[in-house]
Batch of 2 targets.
Target 1
Amino acid sequence: MTGHTKGTDTSASVGAVEVEPFRIDTLLKVKQSGGRFSPAMIEFLVRNIAKGTMEDSQIGAWLMAMYIQGLDPKETMHLTSAMKESGTVLTWDPSWVVGDKHSTGGVGDKTSLPLAPALAACGLKVPMISGRGLGHTGGTLDKLESIPGYRVMLSAEEMNVALQKAGCCIVGQTGSIVPADKRMYAVRDITGTIDSLPLIVASIVSKKAAEGLNTLVLDVKYGRGTFMKTQQEAKDLARALVDTANALNMRTTALITNMDTPIGRTIGNALEVEESIECLRGKGSDDLVELVTVLGGELLASSGLTPDAVKGRDAIAMSLKDGSAMRVFCQMLQLQGVSKDTAEQICLEKKGTSSVLPKASHVLNVRATKAGLVTDLDALALAKVSLALGAGRSKSSDAINHAVGIRLTKVVGEGVGIGDTWAEIHYEKEIPQSLVLKVETAITISKNASYVPTSRITERVH
Ligand code: URA
């Protein structure tokens, strides 16, 4: 990944910095020749991107220059700020404490679904703007759209009502929020400039800043099932994200978390909703509950709602146990278009969640060929199978099948006997043998192994 520069004045072009009006072609040369941008230069370029007066070819040239030459932390901050200001910035009742979480994306990552209502139950206002998945599995919005009636697009007014009444909402991004990012991301996608640290930071943080947040927590993942492969890469990204978000007045911390094995026991949209509901009933998998409570604890502490992150973690755990987070979730569903009947069927245990969620027509049990302890599950291999089943999309126009996916009946640390089912593949119509084989080889079962539970959370950056 390309990155931050150290920030020394290297450019003879710096002398031309304050000359107004700028010309786009002249400014492109500043970065091409290794110079630094002033805030005014960056604002000028971003304004022209948002207005549509900068052509895609010019955007591509600018992105490539930034990709190759890098941006120093100040330039990154100014780019982020200019991108945030390129569209609507949401504002809220000044008496509210407003916070959100951002994750860099993983396999089976359904953390947002229980976390937003748990935070709201603890007093934080959470206007969570999420994305659709591009890659192996669906994003948070795809997961929620498995619930009949769920409406991801709310107006700013409707978000305000949801925050007043339920305390949270989970919505998609409207075209008016950071319009510059929409154009820049589309051009990055086709010019090989996605994996640039400052461009990733500006893209992520500008969208969070436009939500009008006081506090932010970041889950920066590394490992097989995500785009950052090493812990050090994740740490470098987290450092830049935290510094930039803090500079934009959001109190921000980040957790570095391992993504080698899937989170929880499900991969696939409706299956993940079902597991999230279990978590909201206080019965989630240990790793999912840990992520929800620790990320939530960080936010409650940085928001001043609890004296420290440990007390914050306890408060989130209590909201899952005492049903208060579930009550918020049920209310949120109704404020986002789900009928009262369906919401109650999903949220009330006696009514049975699974009866309203889409179901795949076939389930294939995958059985263990030896006995022992599960010591590994390859998140990337399982994610690729989920994509091939239809749970994710390879390009943004692909349709998603909400019902398909994989349920893990055994996870790392659990014992398995020969012939025991350790996974269910939920699929439609037929399943190629190659996919079954891919699942079969995603597990490692070790004889005579011992298991020491380890946390996915390996570091905290603040
Ligand atoms: N997510 C974003 O929103 N932007 C990036 O550039 C990378 C991840």
Target 2
Amino acid sequence: MKLSVIGCGYLGAVHATAMASLGHEVVGIDVDEERISLLSDGKAPFFEPGLDDLLTQARDLGALTFSTDISLAQGAAVHFVAVGTPQRPDGDGADLRFVDSAIAALLPILGLGDLVVGKSTVPVGTAGRLAEQIRSTGARLVWNPEFLREGFAIEDTLRPDRLVYGVTQNGSAERDVSILDEIYRPAIDAGTPRVVTDYATAELVKVSANAFLATKISFINAMAEIAEVTGADVTQLADAIGFDARIGRRFLNAGIGFGGGCLPKDIRAFSARAEELGVGQSVRFLREVDAINLRRRQRVAELIADAFDGEPQDRHVAVLGLAFKPDSDDTRDSPALDVAQRLHDAGAVVHAYDPAAIDTARRIAPDLHFAESVDNAVREAEVVVVATEWREFREMLPESISQVTRSRTIIDARNCLDPQAWRAAGWDYRGMGRP
Ligand code: UGA
């Protein structure tokens, strides 16, 4: 099928590439010339395992092209809208300007029977409004939210755990469902559960899924706060409650809290939208989820300051990890980078290292000292902080690190190290919510 993907950020670039790998003819459109030129050269504009290879394969087959010229999308049977919906600069709501401009740009090229498929995360009510806007062209709209995780983006796109189609209620639903089924044929044939619903439900599925995940993480971080004043161990607590299949152990890792381009802004946008709809109280707990989450960053900064008896000025700290999670170079709302910046602002000398995110971090926090390796970062350090649980850090041997640094204090902001091993090697180990 001939497809276009409008917006080639994380979601769009991966979606375009994955759809081309399924045999569709895809054109990816974006206003960012640098991004388009990288993608056209077969290079992913961000770190995502496997994406470079898949891009090159699809491009060599001639199935995938990228352009800044939206007129090249004309003639595609289906147009995916995959632009970003960041937090508004002046409040908590979602900034829909990229969605609106994508639809405005599509309007002149849409024809009778074309399908516009929304994938961006939007406030409930947006799809209905956009469907009205495109109605006069004879095109139809489906809302098909995306649940991919960075670091697993290709796998999540090609083998999702569910597909959600929000379709119009005015008679064309069956046709729209069969078009999407055709696009996602391998996943459908593999028995992927598919929920066909109305626009509002599809929009809400996406934001409520992220709200649930954020709540789960803040729940365990709240337990970490209680553990910190009672001497309990939140990691054992998580293991023990996680054995209950109704609770489950995944997304119960206490630490520095969640970040990234999705969970933080999505829970804020959800709260803002609920307030607009007069049901703010229904998700008021998300404000608390956000507050618990932000307190964890503060807690890590305090643990570091405590290690310097409250006076971190001119003291040397190694911050290992800047990305908001491992296997990503994304530093959007990254708790790791936030803590590094707080330390810098408090006068500490921060030596920061990340296996993939130094370039993106440098753009946001140019004043940090960036190291090229763990050894370089820890050499001068008096305190070492593990802020993102990259495998490289999880597998560090305390004895080897001891040989290159004068520090003997490690703050494990992700609870990803073995406290016994570090203590046995003579380190003062401090975790989050554990004795
Ligand atoms: C999240 C959702 O997991 C995806 O399903 C969704 O599609 C995506 O947002 C989106 O809306 O686009 P992602 O932002 O890639 O995906 O990251 P997650 O793996 O969900 O991690 C989010 C944050 O939570 C990270 O900072 C991570 O370190 C943190 N986290 C995760 C914890 O602190 N504890 C945990 O137990 C799990």
